[in-house]
Specification:
This protein is an alpha+beta fold and 253 residues long. It contains nine helices and four strands. A four-stranded mixed β-sheet has the order 2-1-4-3. A hairpin with a 6-residue loop joins strand 3 and strand 4. Helix 2 packs parallel to helix 4. The longest helix is centred in the middle third of the chain and has 29 residues. It is globular. The relative contact order is 0.14.
Length: 253
């Protein structure tokens, strides 16, 4: 509102890319959400789950405020940024091993998080991407929610009990680790899917070390590390990877 917007082919192409990615994320998620019913009580969560759930509540508050102020462009940008960075690029890669492993005791936490976050993103996108969100809602969420159309659903309301500044900080630390390893692989001209023999994370902060231990399976999933240890300092044989923040990252290819 009140601002001129330049429309060009590049922006149209970016919109096409977004719709394609939304479709692909929904297609990936379908096998984990078929027949799913949210539990009466919340399951156990990893730090990765708690981070994304907290960020989702913040997103609901922010986007709702922007729509109320008729700032549709900013509402779209906030939702799109969250979808790419938090959900598609990081959370799905972190939780993938838990989702595939039906014997994993933390799998239900990942399923609940995926359900809650994906349906929320669909609803926040619905006023701007009405057709693709309706198609995906019909395929994935009508059996779960019992509502006939995404456009007659109740607008998302943030669950304050899931908001956590501690979870947000932990999530950013996990993203920094994932980003550092991705950068290392890219600069070394090796595939992002290449497995690492061993990986170490070093910190002298006891609470951070505890969080990293709890999130170890998700860290191994996103970095493709076969072994992971959390220590106060890196072993001498470790190749230290440049990383932001206070956590040192070392690996052996």
């Amino acid at each position: 509102m009140g601002k001129d917007t330049t429309v060009n082919e590049e922006k149209i192409a970016m919109g096409s890319k977004l719709v394609t990615k939304l479709w692909n994320v929904a297609k990936f998620s379908q096998r984990f959400l078929e027949g799913y019913q949210p539990p009466a009580e919340l399951p156990d969560f990893t730090p990765t789950d708690r981070w994304l759930l907290s960020r989702t509540q913040w997103l609901i508050q922010r986007v709702t405020e922007l729509f109320r102020n008729y700032d549709y462009s900013a509402a779209k940008n906030e939702t799109e940024s969250f979808f790419w960075r938090e959900l598609a690029d990081n959370y799905l890669e972190m939780s993938k091993e838990r989702l595939y492993d039906e014997t994993n005791e933390m799998r239900e936490g990942a399923r609940y998080t995926l359900y809650h976050v994906l349906v929320t993103v669909m609803k926040l996108f619905a006023p701007i991407l009405p057709y693709i969100t309706e198609t995906l809602y019909q395929a994935l969420f009508v059996p779960i929610e019992g509502e006939g159309s995404i456009h007659t659903c109740r607008w998302p309301i943030a669950n304050d009990s899931l908001l956590s500044a501690t979870a947000d900080v932990a999530g950013e630390a996990l993203i920094e680790i994932a980003t550092a390893v991705r950068r290392y692989k890219s600069e070394s001209n090796i595939s992002l899917g290449t497995e690492l023999k061993r990986m170490q994370l070093a910190t002298i902060d006891v609470s951070v070390a505890r969080m990293l231990q709890e999130a170890s399976a998700d860290i191994m999933s996103v970095t493709r590390a076969r072994q992971l240890a959390v220590k106060e300092s890196l072993d001498a044989d470790m190749e230290e990877v440049k990383a932001e923040g206070k956590i040192k990252v070392g690996l052996v290819r």
